Amino acid sequence: MKKLFLLTFIIACIAGNTALAQRADYNIIPLPKQVDTDTTQYFTLQSGMGIAYDASNEEAVRNAKFFSEWVEQSTGIKLALTPNDKKASIRMSLGFASDKKLREGETLTEQQQEAYKINIDDNGILIEARNPVGLFRAAQTLRKAMPIVKNTKDVKVEMPYAKIQDEPRFVYRGTLLDCGRHFFTVDVIKQMLDVMALHGCNQFHWHLTEDQGWRFEVKALPNLALHGSVRQETTVGPNVGIYDGIPYGGYYTQEQCRDVVRYAAERYINVVPEIDLPGHMQSALHVYPHLGCTGGPYPVRTYWGVSREVLCGGNPETMTFLKTVLGELCDVFPSKIIHIGGDECPKDRWKACPKCQAKIKELGLVSDGKRTAENQLQSYINKEVEAFLAERGRDIIGWDEILEGGLSGKSIIMSWRGTKGGIEAAKQGHRVIMSPNVYSYIDHPQLKDVAKQPRTTGSYIVSASKMYSFEPLMKEELNDEQQDYILGVQANLWTEHVAYPEHLFYQLLPRLGAMSEVQWCNPEQKDFEYFKARLPHLKKIYDLMGVKYCTGIE
Question: CATH homologous superfamily for 19-166?
C-alpha cells in the first residue's frame, strides 16, 4: 500500500512539474525567414529575469515594455525592466556588426531596415536589430512562440536553443477598413491595429468617406462631418427596398485621428487615409449640393452600390473644396502617401452638365477611341490633386482606374479589379500595391456554407486557401525590373454588411494570418497544410486579445 502511495506521489510530482514546465515553439505565423534550432538544449525563462535595453532610446524602452507585457499575458511570467544591464537574461541591442562592412554608397532596403536576429542559448535571449522596428518585430516573434498558460503560478518556459534571422518580403503590408459604410469607434480601430501588428502589417488603409457617410472632420467646413456623417436609415440586407428606419452616423474628430496615428506609429504602422474622389461623394453633396451637377437635393445614401451623383468636374469650386479637405488631411496624417480613390465614378451627369462640357471644351479634351472626353476630365482632376499634394511632399495612391488617364511616375496604383491594372502599371513604371478582389476582399464569405456565417458581400470566392495561394509578383507577365515596382499586398474589408466589431474581426481572422504569409514570406516557405497546422496556437492568442474569429478554415 505504501509503495502504491509512493508511486502515485511520484507520478503526481512529475505531472505537476510537467504542467509548470512549458515549451516555446518558433513555428509561428508569419513564418520567419530562417530558424535553426537545437531541441536538445533549452534556456529556461522564468519570473524575475531582466530585460536590458538602451534607456536613452524611447522606442527601445517602449518595445521592452511591450515584450514584458506580452510574456506576462501569455505565461504569467513577470520580467523586470533592467536598462543597460549587460548581465540581463534578455538583451535588446540596436545595430548589426555586418553593417560596418557595407561598401561606400551601399544602402539597405526598407525590408532590411526591419530585419532582426534572435539568438537563444545558455546565456539567455539576445535580440539584435538595425532599428527599433526590428526590435518590435522580434518581440512579436517571441510573443507568438510563447505557450499560452492557464495556470500561471510558478511557470517556467523552456526555450529551445535557436538562431532566428528574419525580414519581410514586401515593404508594403496593408489592411483596409471601410468606415464610410459603417462607423467603428477609435477603441475598435486600436484593437484592429493590435491585430495587424501581431501579423506583421505596417500599413492601415483608412477608408474615411463614402456616399453613405463622411467620417473626417474638416474644421474649415464644420457642417461636412456634422451633417454628412448621418444617413436617415440603412437598407436591411441587400438592396430590396426594406429599411430599418433608424438614423445612423458618426465621425472622427481630427484629434481622434491624431490619436489613431500615434497609436499606430507605436506599433510601426503607417495610417494611409483615403478621401475617395470625385465619385463616392454623395455624403459631401448632401451638405454642399452646389458641388453636384444637378444641384440636388442629395440625401446621404441609405443603400449600397455605385451612385451616379458625383462632384461636378466643371465647377471651379470643386477643386477649392478638395484642396480644403486634403490640406487639412495632410495636417492630421503624416503619411507620405494619400489615397484619392478614383474608382467607380459614373460620367452620366458629366455628359449632360453644361459646366462639365464647358470645361472639357476649355481643356481641349476629345474622345480618342480609348478614352472619352469625360474620362479625361477625371484625369485632369486627378492630376490637379496630385500636384496639390506634391507641394506638401505627398504622393498619391489610387485604385487602378486612375491609371487610365496617365499620371506621374510617383503615383502608386492599387490594383483591385484583378491583377491586370497592376501589371500594366508596373510596365509603365508606376509603383503598385496588389489588392485584387478575387484574392484580397475579405468582405466575402470565407466558408462554403454561407448560411452558417454572418451576412457578407457576394459569393464564396476568397477563402483562406485562395488568399494564401496568391503570388503578387506576376512573374509570368513581368520581368525582374518590372517586378521591383510591386511594393506589396493588401487585404480589404468593405463594410456594407459589417456593422459590429465582432463581425469585423470574424471577417478578418484567420484570413489575415493567410495574407500575412503572402506579405512576409518567400514563396518557397509557403505551404497551406503547414499553415493550418500552425494556426491553432495563433487562435489562442486571438482568444487572449479578446477578438472573435472564424473557427473554420478552407
Answer: Chitobiase/beta-hexosaminidase domain 2-like (3.30.379.10)
